[in-house]
Amino acid sequence: MKTSKIAVVLSIIVFLFIVVAGILAFLNSPPPAFKSGVRFRVEKGETALAVGNRLEESGLIRNSGFFYFLVRLSGKNVKAGNYFFKTPVPAKEVFTVLTEGLQEIVTVTIPEGLTARKTALILKENEVISDTEEFYECIKDSDFLKGLGIPMDSAEGFLFPETYNFYKFMDSYDVVSMMVGEFFNVLNEIDSSVAGNADKLKETVILASIIEREYQIPEEAPVISGVFHNRLEINMRLQSCATVEYIITEIFNKPHPNFLTYDDIEIDNPYNTYVNWGLPPGPVSNPGKVALSAALNPDDNDFLYFRLVDVDTGRHHFSKSLTEHNNASEEFYRSVKK
């Protein structure tokens, strides 16, 4: 009788030892299938059970049941977000990361005037996104763009330049949503009537994207806007170098030119405002607040021309006639040769 009791006790001890060993193994060592550089996303409202199942399927934990038990025992919840595991970690760390919402923050500044392609490269360099191709697909997703209030076939022009606190390896759709959301916040501060008018919105963003690439001194942005408005009113071609540069770098995928040649300004392309009248079919950069405000609030002037006359300060000379413009150009070239 005593022998049988001892056997039962030993069996229980062995069982408990196996259970404890299993729990310790689960908690303290990553599973063999756990690979380096794994991105894992928890959706809003997703249950711990569902998350545990996906973690096991992804090879991040050994047993989803243990994970679910651990979450229930702790009284915590998994938090929605984008998580990145650079190297394999034990289940207890996976548990801590997901229940504490430990997403790594990356502060990134997107300068004014960049194209979507160059913006994507900065985001990838800073590990905000892992794939630029996914980003490019996202900014051309028609259903997604419609939901964001963008009346165009691309988010080019709507990726607002700003300093952002992103998480590492976010979904491209979340990144674009943040940037477009900031665009509309700023636009509504300038003029709340524009966002609801598709034609006005499109014209504003396209013109602002050109102004962004042309001005260097903020005070000159409304003056440059006035020049472009004057040209549009009399059906005069905009003749903006920024549109030709966009063709070369973004459509032809060539390096940014140091200067434009006569062949460049004669390129047969809808974006070329040297050969086509009116605005180009889409934005040529992502404008900031100064350019957006200038596009909507042009200076009331009679100027039709402008040219850079001070390379150091970025100052332009504005002219009412071609003769005056040419004289300013000749004076500039003479000063450069000295």
From TrEMBL:
The entry's localization annotation reads: Cell membrane
Site note Important for catalytic activity, residues? 214
Domain of life, per lineage: Bacteria
InterPro entries on file: MLTG-like (IPR003770)
GO CC field: plasma membrane
Q: What class of enzyme is it?
A: lyase
What's the family? Belongs to the transglycosylase MltG family.
Q: What does this protein do?
A: Functions as a peptidoglycan terminase that cleaves nascent peptidoglycan strands endolytically to terminate their elongation.
Q: Which GO terms describe its molecular function?
A: lytic endotransglycosylase activity
Native organism:
Candidatus Gallitreponema excrementavium
Reactions mediated catalytically: a peptidoglycan chain = a peptidoglycan chain with N-acetyl-1,6-anhydromuramyl-[peptide] at the reducing end + a peptidoglycan chain with N-acetylglucosamine at the non-reducing end
Keyword check for Metal-binding? no
Protein name per UniProt? Endolytic murein transglycosylase
Q: What is the lineage of its organism?
A: Bacteria, Pseudomonadati, Spirochaetota, Spirochaetia, Spirochaetales
Give one Pfam family: YceG
